[in-house]
Amino acid sequence: MVVIAHLSDIHIDAEDRSAGRTARVVAYLNGLPTPPAAVLITGDIADHGTEDEYERVRALVKLPVPVLWAPGNHDDRGPYRKVLDDDDGDGPINRAHEIDGVLILMADSSIPGRNDGLLDDETLAWLDARLTERPDLPALIAFHHPPVVLGIPFVDNIRQFEEERLAALVDRHPQVVALLCGHAHTPAATMFAGRPLLAAPGVVSTTTMPFEGDAIVDLRLPPMIAFHLLDDDRRLTTHYRVIP
């Protein structure tokens, strides 16, 4: 069984609050008797996308396992590439990883200068090529913006659009086990193109549902993370953990 930790929306800025909450999550992961195979962070890594914020992220997120990143709408591709990716360019930041027999595709759903999301033609072609190359491996596709309505108006208005193109791609590749995302700031589980779509909770804050009140987020709730367990039969089970 492969265990993958998944967190999102750490929103590191110059203040102590976001850094402190992220440090709690990192300490929890470092204290596990058996570490996960990898840690996924699905976007909104920095709050303003500055180089200083990414440098702070690098100093905070020190783990003994691979950390796989994907950008969100608060991230800026230039500083992100310089500090976290050791790369240059201005196109989508898409990265493929093979870990313990699992293909993990970290895709860029961000649109520079906008809060909503899209997997552009370049990213969809990249996903198709990577999946075509390794049809033998179970695959997870991870990105920031959920490609479905989650019932949270603030999030749904800035979700990933033109999702039918991603659904067609998933239909062509039966090895795709699940899709993973962030952006929602709340743990959520639904279906997309016949596969599980699993949203990681937000580390910096938790989104409130419309039936819970008028506030968009609750800053009092503790950070949470997800653990995805993939067994030998390619069955995925997800557990969510509160970090006290």
- The amount of helix comes to 25-40%
Number of helices: 6
Strand content of the residues, in percent?
A: 25-35%
Bulk shape: globular
Detail the poorly predicted runs. Answer: none
Q: The CATH topology, please?
A: Purple Acid Phosphatase, chain A, domain 2
Q: Which value, in Å, is the CA radius of gyration?
A: 17 Å
Strands of the widest sheet, in order across it, are 4-5-6-7-9-8
Q: Could you give the count of β-strands?
A: 13
Q: Spell the H/E element sequence.
A: EHEHEHEEHEHHEEEEEEE
Classify the oligomer. single chain
CATH architecture: 4-Layer Sandwich
The major beta sheet can be summarized as: 6 strands, mixed
User: End-to-end span in angstroms?
Assistant: 27 Å
The number of distinct structural domains comes to 1
Mean pLDDT: 97
Q: Structural class from helices and strands?
A: alpha/beta
CATH class: Alpha Beta
CATH superfamily: Metallo-dependent phosphatases
Task: Please explain how this structure is put together.
- Helices cover 25% and strands 26% of the residues.
- The chain is an alpha/beta fold and 244 residues long.
- The chain has a single domain, classed as Metallo-dependent phosphatases (Purple Acid Phosphatase, chain A, domain 2), CATH 3.60.21.
- The strands form three sheets. A six-stranded mixed beta sheet has the order 4-5-6-7-9-8, with helices on one face.
- Strand 4 (95-99) and strand 5 form a beta hairpin.
- The longest helix is centred in the first third of the chain and has 15 residues, at 16-30.
- It is globular, with a radius of gyration of 17 Å.
- The two termini are 27 Å apart.
- 43% of the residues are buried.
